[in-house]
Amino acid sequence: MVTLFAVFLLTLLVLTAIAVVQTKNLFVAVMLMGIFSLLMATVFFILDAADVALTEAAVGAGISTMLFLATLALTGEHEKPSKKGPWISGLVVAITSLILIDATFEQPYLGDPMAPVQQHVAPWYLEMTPELMDFPNVVTAVLASFRGYDTLGEVFVVLTACIGVLFILSAGPGAPNPKSPRIPTAPSVGLRHHLIPRVVGKLLIPFIVLFGLYVQFHGEYSPGGGFQAGAIIAAGMILYALLEGEKQALKVLPQSVLIGMVVGGAMLYGMVGVVGMLMGGNFLDYSVLSSNPVSGQQIGILIIEIGVGLAVCGALLAIFHAFAARRSVG
Amino acid sequence: MTSGMQIIAALLVPLIGAIGIALVGRKSPNLREAVTFITAIALLVIVWTMLPGLFAGERPEITLTELLPGLSIKFQVEPLGMMFAALASLLWIVNSIYSLGYMRGNKEQHQTRFYVLFAVALSAVMGIAFAGNLLTLFIFYEILTLSTYPLVAHKGDGKTVASARVYMGILLATSIGLFLPAIIWTYMATGTLDFVPGGILEGHVAGPAVGLLLVLFVFGVGKAALMPVHRWLPAAMVAPTPVSALLHAVAVVKAGVFTITKIIIYIFGVDFLAVEPSTDWLLYAAIFTVIAASIVALRQTNLKRLLAYSTIAQLSYIIMAAALLTPMAEIGASLHIVAHAFGKITLFFAAGCIYVASKKTEIAQLAGIGRRMPWTMAAFTIGALSMIGVPPTAGFVSKWYILGGAFQADSYIVIATLVLSTVLNAAYFLPILYIAWFRNDETTPANNHGEAPKAMVIAVTITAALTLLFMAFNQPVLDLESQLVGITR
Amino acid sequence: MEILGLYNYWAYVAVLMIGFYAVIAKSNLIKKLIGLSIFQSAVFLLYITMGKVDGGTAPIIQAGVSDQIFSNPLPQVLILTAIVVGVSTLALGLAIVVRIKESYGTIEEDQIHLLDHKS
Amino acid sequence: MSIYQHLPALQVVVPMLIAPLVVLMRGRGLAWAMATATSMMAFIIAVSLTNIVLETGAVSYAMGSWQAPYGIELRVTAFSALLLLIVTAASTITLLFGKQSIDSQLEEHRQPMFYAAWLLVLAGLVGIVVAGDAFNIFVFMEVSSLASYILIAAGPNRKAMPSVFKYLIMGTIGATFYLIGVGLIYMMTGTLNLADMEVRLQEVQDIKPIIVAAGFITVGLALKAAVFPLHVWLPNSYTYAPHMVTAFFAACATKVSLFVLLRFEFLVFHQNLVEHVGHFSTFLIPLAVIGILLASGVALFESHLKRLLAYSSIAQVGYILLGASMATASGLTAGIIHMFNHALAKGALFFAIACLATQVSSLRLENLGGVARKMPWTMAAFVIGGLSLVGIPGTAGFISKWLLISAVLEKGTLGIFLVVAVLVSSLMAAVYFWRIVEVAYFGDAPKQSAELHEAPKWMLLGTWFVALANIYYGLNPSLPLLLSNQAAASLLGQLP
Amino acid sequence: MTTVIDILSWVLLLAGSIFVFIGGIGTLRFPTFYTRLHAASLTDGIGTILILGGLVLQAGWTLAAFKLLAILVFLLLTGPTAAYALANAADMSGMKPEENEVSEVEK
Q1: Chains A and C touch (3+ CB pairs under 8 A)
Q2: Domain count, chain A
Q3: Interface test with chain A among E71, E81, E88, by most A beta carbons within 10 Å
Q4: How much is the mean pLDDT over chain B?
Q5: Chain D: nearest CA to C104, how far in angstroms?
Q6: For labeling, which of B230, D186, D261, E62 is most exposed (least CB within 10 Å)?
Q7: What kind of fold does domain C2-52+71-118 have according to CATH?
Q8: By the CB < 8 Å criterion, does C45 face chain A?
Q9: Does the pLDDT at position D143 exceed 90?
C-alpha cells in the first residue's frame, strides 16, 4: 500500500519537476516549486520522516517560495528563450543518470530491514536514546546531541547566509539609503486597506506563533524543534509584515533586533558547548551540565533548541526584510 | 677563522657588500665605489688566504642546512674550485677599477643597481666554485643567471630587453629543462650528489643511458655555450662592457665549463667515461663548436660579437681538453680557464675603452686607432696573441698542455683541431691588429679622441700584464691542479 | 512488485537529473536556482528512502509500546541539516541575482556574457 | 582535562563563535582588529596542534563526548596539521597586513559583515580539515563556501557578481555530488565516520554503488578544488574578488578540497577497491597533465594579472594532483608539500598584486609599464614569488618541483613523459611570469599614468614576510617536509 | 452505534471527495479566472468540511479529533480569505469579470 502510494506521489513529483523546468513563466515555476515541495514533504511523511516533512513544508514550500517571489518582484518573471543548445547538457545528464540508475540495481530495496544502514549505528541511537536522554524523539536526540556539532554547523550556515544576504544587498544601486527614506509604495503599507485578509490574518498570527512555540518546546516528544519552530514563527511575522506593511513590522522587530536574535541564538548554542567544556566535558557535552547526566542532556538540548529557533527565526526575517527593502531599479 | 667559516665568509662578503652599496648608493657615488673596492679586496684576501691550505692538501668543507632528505647545502673546497674562486676574486678588483672609469665615462644610468647586482653575481660565483655537491652548485648556478639578467638588460631599451630575454630564456630553459632532470636522475640512481673524486655514477648507470645523461648535463649547463646552446652569449653582448668582460669572459662562462669539468671529474669520473663508448660524442661536439664558432667569428663585423664567438670557441677548447680524459689534458683544461680569462678580459676591456673614448663598435671603424690609444691597443694585441697561442702569452702555456694531452691520448683529430683553430684565430685577430695599427684613421665617427679614462687604462694594463706574466709564473696553478691528476689517476 | 522497491531510487535519479539539466542548460539565473533546489531535493529523497524500514514508523519511541519498528533516524537528521543548507544557499543566490539584475539589467546568462565582453 | 585536549575543538570553535560577535562591531577598525586577533589565535592553536601531532601522533576528539561512530569525531593528523598551518597562517597574514587594501575596496559600514564572513570561511576551512566524519565535512564545506561567496561578492567590480554566481552554482553542484557519494557509501556501510567507513567498506568492496560513490565524491571535490576541466568558476572569482580575499583563497581554499579528496581516495577507497589505484591514475594523470599544460598555456596569453595567476593556480592544482596520482609515498609527499609551497608562492604574488593595486588603476599588463621603477620593493617581492612559482632553486617552489620530478621518474617510461610535461610547464611559467617582469621593469610607463608611489609600508611588510618565507622554506624545508612525509605515510596506511 | 458512525463517516468522506473532484474539474474546464476561482473555492469550502468531518467521526473522541477540528477551523478561516485575496489581486491588476471572456491560458 505504502509502495503504491509512494509510486503515485513520486511520479507526480517527477512530472511537477518537469513542468517547473519547462515553463517559461518564472512566477508559475515558483508556484509549481511550492507544489513540488509539498509533494516532497508528503513523500517524506510516508517514508516515516515526520521531522523532515515538517521542515520541508515550512522551508521548501514556505520560505523558499517567499524568497523567490521577493526576488521576482525585483527582476521580472519572464524567462527569455535560451540560445544554448540542449545537446551537451542533455548528454551529460543522460550519462550521469545511466550511471546512477545502473548503481541502483545493487542497492537494497526500499524498506529492507536487513540493509546495512539499519544494522550499524542507527540501532544504537534507537536503543540508547530512552536511556541516555529519556525522551521519545530519537531524531531530536541525534540532531541535538549525538550529532550536535553538525547542527551547530548548520546554525552557522544560516548565520552565514543571513550575513551574506545583508552584506550583498547592502550595496548597489537598489540599496536602501538610510539618509533618504524611500517613498512608501503600495506593498510597503501592506494590505491595510483590505479588511478581510487583515482581520483573518491578525486572528491567525497569534496561533501561528503559538504553534511555533509548541513545535519549539515539544520537539523532544513530537516532530519538530528549533528549525521548524523558527521557520514557522518567521512565517507568522512575515505574514504580519505583509498585512501591516514592512515599516510596521520593522517597528515591532527592527533589523538590529533580528541580527541580535541571529547572533544571540548562534552564541547561545556555542556557549552551551563552551560551558560543557568548562565543566569538564568535551565540547557540546551536555551530560556535565547537571549532576544527573540525563537531565543534563535534556537541559542542554532545550537550550540549544532555543538557540537554533532564535537564530533561524531571526535570520529568515532579516533575509526577508533585506529583500523587501530593496528598491526596484530600472 | 676556520676554513669552513672562510667559505661562508667568501659567500657573505659580496652580499654584505651589495647591501652596503645599496644603502650608500643613492647618497654618494664615491662612497659606493669605495664600498665596492673594500668588498672586492676583502673577498680577495679571504679567498687567497685559503690557498696555502689547499696546496698542503687540505679540503675544507662545511655543511649548512639540509634541504631535502640526504641532500644538504654543502661546500667543499677543491683545487679546481679554488682556482676558479681565486681567479674571479682577483679579476673582480681589476674589473671594479675598470667599471669605475667605464660607468662614469659613459654616464650610465642605474649605477647603484649595477654595482649591487655585480656583487650578488660574485657571491653566486663563489657559491659555484665552492659547491660541495651538485644541488648546491645548481642553486648558485641559477642565482648567477638571475642576478646577471638585469645586468645584461641594463640599458633597458627594446633591443636590449629582447636580447636579455634570449639570454635568460636559454640559460633558464636549459638549466631547468635538462640540467635539473639530469641532477635528479643522478640522485635517484646513486642516492647522492656529492662531488666524489673518481665519480659516483660508476656501477649505477650503464650503456647508452650514460651518454644520454651526459647530453643532459652538457647541454643543461648552457653557460658552457657548447653549440647549439651558445646563442645567449652573443645576445649578452648588449650589456655594458664590464659585465661582458668579467661575467661573459670570466665568471659566467667559466662557471659553465667549470661545472662541466667538475661533472666529468667528480660525477662521472674520468675512468668511467673513458670506458663508456656512448660518451665519445662530447669530444666531437666540442671540436665542432671550436671550428664552427671560429668560422662564425671570421664573419663578424662588430668587435664585441667577434669576441663573443671567440669565447665560444675557447670555451669548447676547455671542454675538449677535459673530454680527452688524459691527465695532461685535464691540467691543460684548468690552465686554459685561467689563461683564457686573462686574455679575454683584456680584449673586452680594450673594446670597452675604445667604446668609451670613441663610441666605436665596428671593426671597420678601428683604422689607425692604435696611434690614438696606444696603451689600449697594445693590451689588445697581447690579448689577441694569447688567444692565438703565441708565446710569450698565457694562451701558449695552456695550448701546450692540451696538445700534450692530445698526444697522450693519441687523438689526432684534436691535434688537427688545435692547428686549424690556431690558424682561424689568427685569421680573425690579425686583420684587426693590422687595421688598428697600420691603417689611417679617416673613418667616422669623430676621430678626435684620445686615450680612454685613466681607471680603464690602468685596468687593461694590469690584465695585459697578467696575460704575459702567466707565461712565466704558472707554477702555482700547475701545482694546484696537479693534485687533480693525482685524483684522476 | 519486488522491483518497485527500487522505484524510489529511480525517482530520485529522475528528479536529480531534471534539476541538474535546468542548472546547466538554462540561461536564466533564477531558473538555474530553481533547478538547483530541485537538484538538492532529489538528494533529500535519496537519504530518506534509504532510512525507511518496512512496517516502521517515525522514530519517536512511544512509552509502553514494545516491538515497534522504527525507521532510521540518522538520514533524517542529515537531511534536516541539508534542507537548511539548501535554503541558505538559495537565499544567497537570490541576493546575488538581485544585484546582477541591478547592474546588468538582465538575469539571462548569455546576455550578461555579451555585456561583459562588449566593455 | 587540560586545555590541550580541547585544541581540536577550539581550532574550529574559536573563529566560528567569534564571527557573529564581529558582526556587531561598529567602531572604526574594531571588526578588523577582532578578526585579526581571532585569526592569530587560530594560528597559535594550529601551531600547538602541530606540535602535539608531531610529538604524539594523530589526535582524536569526540564531540559531545559521544564516541565515534555514534558521535562526530575530530581527527588531527600530520596532514591536517599542515593544512591547518597553511589555512590559519594565510588568513592571519592577509588580515594582519591587508587592512589598507580592504579599506580601499570596501565601504566602512559593510566591513563588520565582511570580517565576520572572513572568520566563517576560516572556521569552515579548519572545520573541514579537522573533521573525521563525512557528513560533518559537508556541513563545514557549506559554511566555508557560503562565506567565501560573500567575500568574493565584496569585489568592487560589477563582474564580481556573475563570477560569484557561477561559483555558487558550481560549488553547490560539487557539494551535492559529494553528498550523493557520501549517501551511497552510507547506504552500503551504515556509517559516516571516515575511519569506520574504511573498515566497513571491506565487506562490500567493489559493488557498483561504492564505485559510483567514489566517482561522485571525486567529481564533487574536484569541482571544488578547481581540477581541470572543472575549473571554470575559478579564474573570474579570483580576478574580481577583493585582492586580499584572492590572496587568502589562492593560498588555501582549493587545497582544503584537495585534502578531503586525498583523504577519501587513500583512506577510504584505496584499501578497499581492487581497481582503485588503476582507476585513479588512469583518470587523474591525464587530467592533471592536460590541466597543467592547458592552464599554463592560457596564462601565457592572459593580460590581466590576477586572471593570469588564477590560471597558474589551476596548473598548480594539476601538480598537486599529479603527485598524488602516482599513489606512491614519494608522489604523495611531493603533492602535499606542493600545497604548502604553492600557498607561499601564490600568497606572495597576490600580496604583491594587492600592493600594486593600491597605486595603479588597472591590473592589465599594458597598464603596468615601468611600474617597478616606482615601486621597487613591491616588484622585488613579486619577483621572489614568481621565482618560487617557476621553481628556481633557493625558493620553496624548487623543493616541490624536485620531489615531484623524482617521484614521477619512479614510474619508468611514463615518468619521462610526465617529467617533460612538468618541465615544459615550468618553462611556460617562467615565460608568463617573465612577461610581467619585463613590462614592469623595462616597459614604458603609460602616458596617462598618475604619479605612482610605493605601496603602504605595512602592506609591503606583509608582502616581504611571505616572500622571505618562500626563501626560508626553500632553504630549510624540514618542517613541511616532515609533515608531508608523515601525511603521505599515513595516507598509504604505513603509519598506525 | 459504531456501525452507524462508520456509515455516516464514509458518507461524509465520499461526499467530500465528490465535491473536491467536481471542484477540480471546474478549475480545469471553466473558461475565465473568476469562474475557475469559484470552482476552486468549492474544494476548500464544502469539500474540506465534509472530509474532515468524516475523519473526525473515524477518529472518535481522541486528541486526533481535536487536531482535525483545529485544522478545519484554520482552513475555514484561510480558504475564503485566500480566495478573496486572489480575486482582489486580479481585480487590482485590471482584470474585470465582464471583460474577460476568454481564459488567459487560451489567449
Answers
A1: yes
A2: 2
A3: E81
A4: 86
A5: 8
A6: E62
A7: Helix Hairpins (1.10.287)
A8: yes
A9: yes
